[in-house]
Amino acid sequence: MKLVKKLLREFLVGMLFGSMIYMLTNFYNVNLNHRIIYLFVCGLIGILTELFNNDNIKIIYAFILHFLGTFGLICILNLLLGDYEVFEMPYFTQFVILFLITYAIIWGISLMLFRNTTDKINDAIKKRNKH
Q: Which stretches are transmembrane (predicted)?
């Protein structure tokens, strides 16, 4: 049951990130069905972040698997939405560049949030040890 709760939480966080990106870019603005598919795929990408919580997978392998899984899900998203031209040149090059930029921005935000949380925890531990 813990695993189901954890995966559901990651799914919802993925949808949250997807919603923020959607609001900032309005990238998939065609219709409600496309938006639902987009949010569902974002939720699946959120579940992929559980790779980083697995102690049996080295961080570099988790990163590679997350990157490839995310790229694959975004490709599937484009297929589901009928955006086949994205797989033709020169659109594919543009698609890959935009994907890399978006992925890097999201990773940067995630890293800043992680560091902020880690700093707060470390400060709390230092304060507790002083008293």
A: 7-24, 36-52, 59-80, 92-114
In this predicted structure, which of 13-17, 21-25, 51-55, 65-69 has the lowest mean pLDDT? 21-25
The domain limits of the chain are: 2-130
Nearest-angstrom CA–CA distance, 3 and 17: 21
Residues 6+ apart with CB under 8 A from 27: 21
Average confidence (pLDDT) over 92-116: 87
Residue 123 CB coordination number (10 Å): 10
Question: % helix / strand / coil in the chain, to the nearest 5?
Answer: 85, 0, 15
